[in-house]
Amino acid sequence: MQILTSFCAVVACLVIGGRAFLNGHDLSSTGYMETQQGALWYDTNGKQQTLETILGSGGMNSVRLRLWTADEYGLQYTIGLAQRFSKAGYSIYLDMHLSDTWADPTHQAVPSGWDASSIANLSKKLRSYVSTTLQAFTAKGVKITILALGNEVTGGILFPLGQISNNNFSGFATLWAAARAGVRDAVATGTANPQVIIHIDNGWKQATVTWFFKSLFATGKVSTSDVDAFGFSFYPFFSSDATISALTTSLTSIANNYKKPIYVAETDWPTACSGVTLSASYPINAQGQREWTAAVIAVLKGLPGGLGAGVFYWEPAYVTTPSLGSPCQSALLFSVSWYESKAYAKALSSVELYI
Ligand SMILES: *[C@@H]1O[C@H](CO)[C@@H](O)[C@H](O)[C@H]1NC(C)=O
Ligand SMILES: *[C@@H]1O[C@H](CO)[C@@H](O)[C@H](O)[C@H]1NC(C)=O
Fold this sequence. Notes:
The protein has one domain: Alpha-Beta Barrel (TIM Barrel), CATH 3.20.20. About 35% of the residues lie in helices and about 20% in strands. It contains nine helices and 14 strands. It has helices at about 1-10, 30-35, 50-55, 75-85, 120-140, 170-190, 205-220, 245-260, 285-300, and strands at about 15, 20, 20-25, 40, 50, 60-65, 90-95, 145-150, 195-200, 230-235, 260-265, 310-315, 335-340, 340-345. Strand 6, helix 4 (about 75-85) and strand 7 form a beta-alpha-beta unit. Helix 7 (about 205-220) runs parallel beside helix 8 (about 245-260). It is globular and about 55 Å long. One 2-acetamido-2-deoxy-beta-D-glucopyranose (NAG) binds near residues 168, 170 and 171. Its EC number is 3.2.1.89. This is Arabinogalactan endo-beta-1,4-galactanase. One of its GO terms (biological process) is pectin catabolic process.
């Protein structure tokens, strides 16, 4: 511990409640960028390196990966990436979408082939899926440090049975509890206990965030002890109300209410963005990416009880999709040149986001 403390003093790492603050990136698309686009990564000096070396030099210590119940972010692909990044020394945040495709507040499709004829049957399938999936990572030598059961579950999971409607959290709570039980099943067979989180969007929106967790725990089906930490998406381009100050208010109230670690599970800032009102006035370039992320980190580090636990920049190297589902044109941390259908990705100064 003393060695850890002095090491941390040297590299200015912050240990909260025995855990290092996580400076993460979501690198889910890396495999496809490399195998299908032939992506080559260059550091700010123009030297070719692995992606993890470049981002690791920029202070990354953790990697977030999404998992779908089908291709293309399926089990084998995601285990492969998790092995690669964990062998390189990065802790793994596994983001289970519980769907064959993208899951977000309005899309939570039941995986094909899952029996959704009743909540009991769907719960049973979900529980065994979570358990066998975690065991598959364990069998391949990957330890999951953070596990999100569902991605941006503000509207529920596994629609329609797990959809929250008219303030009715019953179906969602039943299903989420089943997923949580699946984690316990895996742990009982020897999987290391992950930190289990619930991840919702719009972390800045205090009323929604408060309503969500209050309603969930009021069902009595999920207790606060089932949830180890909270994760929130926080983007600057979906609402001009998504300010740093709104985030501070919202996350402070969650910290005070539940006294559990809090992550900003997804964020980014654009280098190209026209026709969109952003929620902060940082420049639309690499410097702005650093300033926005630094502001988010400052919010987390200022939370009561030292509960700010980490931040994950979303897909900084998704070179085929620089707009990242946002209304802006790019939020990558790389500038990309294409030559003969191959991506040459050169790091912006913002790859040093975390140092
Ligand atoms: C649920 O699963 C059982 C066992 O597989 C099956 O007999 C039943 O028809 C399914 N559907 C419902 C609505 O219970
Ligand atoms: C909430 O939804 C469940 C089905 O998921 C239903 O059984 C229950 O009656 C609903 N509760 C209320 C108060 O409407």
